[in-house]
Amino acid sequence: MERTTQQKTGQASHKVFVQQLYRDYQEICYQHRLTLPAVVIQLRPLASKWGEWNSATRCISLSEKLVEAHPWHVVVEILKHEMAHQVVQELWGHEENHGPYFQLACERLGMAAWARKASITQMDSGLDAIGESNPISPVVRRIQKLLQLSASSNSHEAAAALQKAKELSQSYQVEAQATSVHTEFHVRIINHRRRRMESFHTRLAAILVEHFHVETIFVSIFDPLSSSSVKAMEIVGTAHHVEIAEYVYWFLFQQLPSLWLQEASQSQLRHRMSFYLGVLQGFSEKLRKEQKISTIKEQSLLVISQEQTQRALACRFPRLRTQKTRSTISDAAAYRHGCKKGSDLQLRAGIQKKSTACGGFLTEGKR
Q1: What tens digit of pLDDT does each residue of 189-234 get?
Q2: Which of 61, 27, 37, 29 minimizes the C-alpha distance to 47?
Q3: Which of these, 316, 312, 241, lies nearest to 76 by C-alpha position?
């Protein structure tokens, strides 16, 4: 009896997932201005693949294990992978599997770098909780080690390690531009499983864009745990820039409530959001003062890199429209206290997401 109930529950969940996949399929077509013939989308217990496109039956099949064990943004990238095969065959009239036309289709669909691989099987260790792929480049590995050093109890050593990571990331990007090396863009998702984002999330995203050479966007994404839509933030950039930007995000996200508890009890402050915005403003001003002056050539190459990152974001979201937002400061005293705390803040060990036992969906966890 219990097993029958579990089977019915699983079937009901799969029905909801399939309905969402149809909605995602239509949204992808709309975003990228594609007119594709309607297809059948289904979930199946695939033995080795995460998904497949069958041109004979005109069916996209995704693995049941995929939707049960990975975040939804990973599911959507696999859906795009199979749609790319459909575009090549039905829109462009070619029969190739993963050749140049397939890569063009991936570009047209604005897919994440890891999802453009010729083969993504269930044995592929590169498909992890955030959908990034192996192998890790030596530069990214070096940056990761420096970020670990930034957890040092010695504040000067920690700050020096993070500054070195930023310099390494920037110099690598300048070198890549100077030598015309192909730039591969990566995507990270920050998902708090909330239906709305608070104003400090927007300010935090702006800090990443201004100081850490990435682009950010807030998107609606399906949450399988609640079967509803939630807001999430995408970070788009090169692998090394994304690595640092995500680290900084989780560090600041952890520091804000900690600083608030300390300051509110000491200074009798009442408006948490004004304090948060002050901290982020003070921290951003601190970064501006610490920024090293680059040569004209380096500045030019970094501008080119920024333009490429913006184009990568536009490729993912062709119908993207920018909208300016203004944060209201309700408590000037709390804001001033926050600015002071932010200007004194030293980047140290942050927190990052980790998968949990509840279906592999991501929540926040400590490093």
Answers
A1: 999 999 999 999 999 999 999 988 899 999 999 999 899 999 999 9
A2: 61
A3: 316
Amino acid at position 321, single letter: R
Of 114, 327, 367, the C-alpha closest to 247 is 367
Dist CA 94 CA 46 (whole Å): 26
Specify the amino acid at residue 166: K
Instruction: Tell me the two tokens of residue 345.
Output: 């803040």
Ramachandran assignment for 33, one of left (phi > 0), alpha (psi -120 to 50 degrees), beta (any other): left
**DSSP tag of 325:** -
Sign of CA pseudo-dihedral 158, 161, 165, 167: positive
Tokens of 257: 């409530």
Say what the pTM is.
Answer: 0.78
> Using an 8 Å Cβ cutoff, are 65 and 14 in contact?
no
Contacts of 54 (CB under 8 A, 6+ apart): 60, 61
Quick: pLDDT tens for 228-243. 999 999 999 988 888 8
Three-class SS of residue 40?
A: strand
SS3 of 182, please?
coil
Report, in angstroms and rounded to the nearest whole number, the Rg of the chain calculated over CA atoms.
22
243-257 pLDDT per residue, tens: 889 989 998 999 999
- The structural domains of the chain, ordered by start, are 2-116 (3.30.2010.10), 138-366 (no CATH)
Are 110 and 316 in contact by the 8 Å Cβ rule? The answer is: yes
What's 359's DSSP letter? T
